[in-house]
Structures are given as structure tokens and as C-alpha cells.
Design a protein that fits this description.
Blueprint lengths: L1 H5 L18 E5 L3 E2 L4 E9 L5 E9 L5 E10 L5 E8 L11 E7 L2 E10 L4 E10 L6 E9 L19 E5 L5 E8 L6 E9 L4 E9 L6 E8 L6 E7 L2 H4 L8 E8 L2 E7 L9 E6 L2 E8 L6 E2 L1 E7 L6 E8 L2 H8 L7 E2 L1 E8 L5 E16 L5 E17 L5 E7 L3 E3 L10 E5 L2 E8 L3 E4 L3 E4 L8 E7 L5 E7 L1 H4 L9 E2 L3 E8 L2 E9 L2
Antiparallel strand pairs: 1-38, 2-38, 3-4, 4-5, 5-6, 7-8, 8-9, 9-10, 11-12, 12-13, 13-14, 15-16, 16-17, 17-18, 19-20, 20-22, 21-24, 22-23, 25-26, 26-27, 27-28, 27-29, 30-31, 31-34, 32-33, 34-35, 36-37, 37-38
């Protein structure tokens, strides 16, 4: 049984016997190198027009390697060879209460480290920018705003509390020209309050707005923020629970509220999924359009029957179109072998892209936990939590919200490590295709019903594979990096996608290697 937790298996199947072929991808492996720190994760990748790139990696320490200690900020040439680096170590700063970093913002050759930390002398939390030219890495800190300590609901960073809100978070606009900092404020049990600061990428303050809603804080969860492409308008999507929604006989015991904030003030729109369960929605801003998409069920919040779609006027917030699309028959065959009246469970969004035809393509993963009793060889038992990363769902909606296709990629992964970066996958959306990157075994296995499977027997033999889903929903695969060539397994859930490439870090102990996978021109 112990091997079940040390070695995990990945099973991927399609509904037709596809063959390995060229997916239009090219790979570039950087040289092997070693870090002082064993545990690192890819945080951000910043490309320039000359093929050079800034790689930002967080590194960890502590007894179990879960405490973030700082960042490696590294400048690489076209061959992924290190040119210069900077060690952004938290112990070198006066900030002692954890990771102060919200994100990294780029303005030309200038890198801004946006920080949120407690200043004991001022009894306040401070938002600052620690900025440097990427050619020198000589940093200077500038204060952007302060918030009194007593006003902060959660003093952690990206920590969650009862209603899922965060102490502070940062969101960039789609075109990277602006960023929003949202801080959850403590204004009593009967109010939900957020302080919103909108800056352009040159750190100029554009909007300073305090959003307050008179409702018990635990009954209102702002689940998503969006910034318009021109950086002038904010959209907040909140999930609201009231006495009226809790009394509903059918459907989810909640409704959604969409809020629009610009220089002229605030507008809001409340809408419900009626007799359907739509436990989570995501907003998509593109081409002067505002759309909310998600998964819905007819049974419970933890089951999914299909895809819901709301087309909303971005100025008035009027709902123009509302649709509920059941998963296709092809999808049910993908998952169950034949069409069955079943529903998926525990889907979590991974990525969303839009096409030049205003179509929406997104994918999600079936993720859940189970408890397992482990019997020790010398007697006694212990409880082990298993973290499952199962089926991948990929969906394409037309410009009017109709389901064009939905596909289910069957896989089963289990790990005792919640942070296991070698499990799961990373996706890259490019024009008409969606690419998925996974770790697999060497042999492609033929399965029943004209299907194939990729089996992972051991992390030591992990090959990086790419899967392409085309505009019609058909998919094929290609082995990209053999484990003997790569020498290290790559962290497939920790990839960072840019417009036409995806980057991975591979590791075996302190031995590390960068990988860039690019779309061929």
C-alpha cells in the first residue's frame, strides 16, 4: 500500500485511436544547474522581444520545506543561460511576518516588486514598490499607500478565512497596462468592505475606491476581480447568501452580484441560476464584452452536468443572454465509455482563452481529497489524506454561448502531498488550439473501445508529453522530452504560460533545469 503513495499513476484516454505526431511545438532545454535551496517553484516569466527572459522563482525552507524564504530573480539569454541574478531574501529585510510580495509588475526594462507588509513603527500595513532595472537589479523602494492595522481583516498574505476573502490580492489587466490591489477591510460583522487601488504599470494611482456592502460579512464573498483592458474600470463578482436564497427549494442557496466601478461611481446587478446549482462562476473580459461562465448541476454544488453562460452588457450590466448547455454525448462517451446520466464532481478552473471569433475555450480539473487508513508494519494505524487530480474537462463555446464541443480527458492521479508540482498539468491556449502538458510513462497503452492511455509508473521515468485539442475538439499527442534526455522530472502543474510559449522548471534534489516549449511559427 505504501507504494500507492510514493508512486502515482496517470491515465489519459481519448475516444479514438490517435497517433503520436508533430503538434507544432519546439523545445529548448537550458543547462543543468544547482541552487543553494532545494525547493523552488516557478512564480513568473517576463519575456522581451530579443528572446531573453527574466525568470522569477520562489524558494522555500523550514523543516518540511513549506516556508517561503525569498525569490531568485534571474536574467537568461536566448539559450536559457544565466546572465545575472538577484537573491530577494526575506531575512535581509525588516519584514518578518511572511511573504510580503503580492506580484511582479513590468514597465519596459523596469521590474516592480509590489509588496504588502506590516510597518510596526506606523502601526499600519504598507503597499510599496521595490523597483529596479533588470540590467542592474539595483532596487529602490517607494511607498504607494498605507492601511491602518486595525482595518485589516486578515493579516496574512493570500490567506483565507471563513468566507474565503483575502487580506490583500493583486490582479493585472489583460494587456498588462494596469494592476489592481484589493484589500479586505474589517468594518464589522454587518458590512463587507474592500479598499481598491488601481495603478498603471508606471505606478500612477488611477482609482482609489472603498467598496462597502451592508450585509453580514460571512454571507458575501467577492470571488473575483477583473480590470478592463484600458485599466479604467473594475468589475467585482460576488457570491451572496441571504435568508431568501437559503429558503429556496431548488437550486443553489445563493445568488451572484456583479459590481462595476469607474471614475463615475458604482453600478451593480444581482442574478440567480434559479433551479440550477452553479457553485462558481468566472468573468471573462474581451473585445468590449463581459461574460460569466461556469459549470452547473441539477443535483448539488459538488456535481456538474454542463456549462452555464451569461452574456452581460459591460456598461449597464444588463444580462443579454443566459444559457445552460449539458455536456455533449461525445463528452459522456469520453468519460464513461457510453452515454450515461451521470455528473462530474469537484471541478476547478485552470485556464480560459478567447479566439478572434469571440469564442471561449476553457479547461478545468476534477480535484478532491479522500482519507485513507494506513496500517503500520509494527502495528497501529494512521490517517493519510490523499489528494486526487483526476479528469480534465475542456469546453468550447460559440460567440453566442452555444456549446460547440466538450471533451473529457480521463486521468487519475493521487498524492499525499497537496503541493506536489509533478502531478496535474499546465495548459497553453493559442489561437484555435488548446495545449495540455503532462508527465507520462514511456509506453502508450492501447485500451478498450478504441482508446489510448498514458501510464505513469514512477516519477523517475517521467516523460513530458503535449496534448493538442484542435478547433473541432479532436486531440492528439506528442512526447516532448524523454526522461533520459531531460535528466530531471518537470513540474507540470507549475508551468508558466506566455502568449506563445510555456516554461517549466525541472528538479531532482538541488539539480535544476529550465525548459521552454514554444509554438512553431
Amino acid at each position: 500500500m505504501k507504494k500507492l503513495f510514493i508512486f502515482w499513476m496517470l491515465l489519459l484516454s481519448s475516444t479514438f485511436l490517435c497517433h503520436a505526431q508533430d503538434l507544432g511545438l519546439k523545445t529548448k532545454l537550458g543547462p543543468i544547474f544547482k541552487d543553494e535551496k532545494k525547493n523552488t517553484r516557478l512564480t513568473k516569466v517576463i519575456e522581451n522581444g530579443d528572446g531573453e527572459v527574466v525568470i522569477i522563482r520562489s524558494y522555500y525552507g523550514g523543516l518540511i520545506g513549506r516556508t517561503m524564504r525569498g525569490y531568485y530573480i534571474e536574467y537568461y539569454n536566448q539559450n536559457l543561460e544565466l546572465i545575472r541574478e538577484f537573491d530577494y531574501n526575506f531575512s535581509d529585510m525588516e519584514m518578518k511576518d511572511g511573504d510580503p510580495t503580492l506580484d511582479f509588475i513590468v514597465d519596459g526594462d523596469k521590474l516592480h516588486i509590489i509588496e504588502f507588509y506590516y510597518d510596526k513603527a506606523k502601526s499600519s500595513y504598507v503597499i510599496s514598490a521595490n523597483s529596479a532595472n533588470v540590467n542592474t537589479f539595483k532596487f529602490e523602494r517607494k511607498q504607494l499607500a498605507t492601511v491602518p492595522y486595525k482595518d485589516i481583516t486578515n493579516t496574512g498574505f493570500f490567506g483565507s478565512r471563513g468566507d474565503g476573502d483575502n487580506g490583500a490580492l493583486l490582479i493585472e489587466s489583460e494587456d498588462k497596462s494596469a494592476f489592481l490591489i484589493a484589500i479586505d477591510l474589517n468594518q464589522g460583522k454587518n458590512q463587507e468592505t474592500h479598499q481598491l487601488y488601481l495603478f498603471d504599470k508606471s505606478l500612477n494611482l488611477k482609482i482609489d475606491y472603498t467598496f462597502t456592502k451592508d450585509i453580514k460579512d460571512r454571507n458575501f464573498n467577492v470571488s473575483q476581480f477583473e480590470v478592463s483592458e484600458d485599466g479604467s474600470t473594475l468589475y467585482l463578482l460576488g457570491k451572496v447568501s441571504t435568508k431568501e436564497t437559503k429558503a429556496k427549494e431548488e437550486g443553489g442557496k445563493y445568488m451572484y452580484e456583479l459590481i462595476r466601478i469607474d471614475s463615475k461611481g458604482l453600478k451593480s446587478k444581482v442574478f440567480d441560476s434559479n433551479d440550477k446549482y452553479a457553485s462558481s462562476l468566472k468573468t471573462v473580459l474581451f473585445n468590449n464584452r463581459l461574460v460569466c461562465v461556469g459549470f452547473y448541476s441539477e443535483k448539488s454544488d459538488k456535481r456538474y452536468k454542463g456549462v452555464c453562460y451569461f452574456d452581460i452588457d459591460p456598461s449597464t450590466l444588463k444580462i443579454n443572454t443566459e444559457k445552460y448547455n449539458p455536456f455533449s454525448e461525445q463528452f459522456m462517451i469520453d468519460k464513461y465509455g457510453k452515454n450515461k446520466n451521470k455528473e462530474l464532481r469537484y471541478l476547478s478552473f485552470r485556464s480560459i482563452i478567447t479566439t478572434d471569433k469571440n469564442e471561449i475555450i476553457f479547461n478545468a480539473e476534477e480535484s478532491f481529497t479522500t482519507e485513507h487508513t494506513y496500517f503500520r508494519p509494527n502495528g497501529g494505524t494512521s490517517q493519510v489524506t490523499n489528494y486526487h487530480k483526476n479528469d480534465i474537462v475542456c469546453v468550447k463555446l460559440s460567440a453566442t454561448g452555444d456549446l460547440q464541443w466538450s471533451r473529457n480527458i480521463n486521468k487519475a492521479e493521487v498524492s499525499i502531498d497537496y503541493f506536489d508540482p509533478y502531478a496535474s498539468y499546465t495548459s497553453l491556449g493559442a489561437e484555435k488550439n488548446m495545449y495540455l502538458f503532462i508527465n507520462c510513462g514511456e509506453k502508450v497503452k492501447k485500451l478498450s473501445n478504441n482508446r489510448i492511455g498514458f501510464v505513469q509508473a514512477s516519477r523517475k521515468r517521467a516523460n513530458l508529453n503535449g496534448i493538442r485539442i484542435d478547433e473541432n475538439g479532436d486531440f492528439d499527442y506528442q512526447e516532448l522530452v524523454d526522461d533520459k534526455v531531460g535528466e530531471v522530472p518537470f513540474m507540470v502543474s507549475n508551468g508558466f504560460a506566455t502568449k506563445k510559449a510555456v516554461y517549466f522548471i525541472g528538479a531532482k534534489g538541488k539539480k535544476k533545469r529550465l525548459l521552454k516549449v514554444t509554438l512553431k511559427e
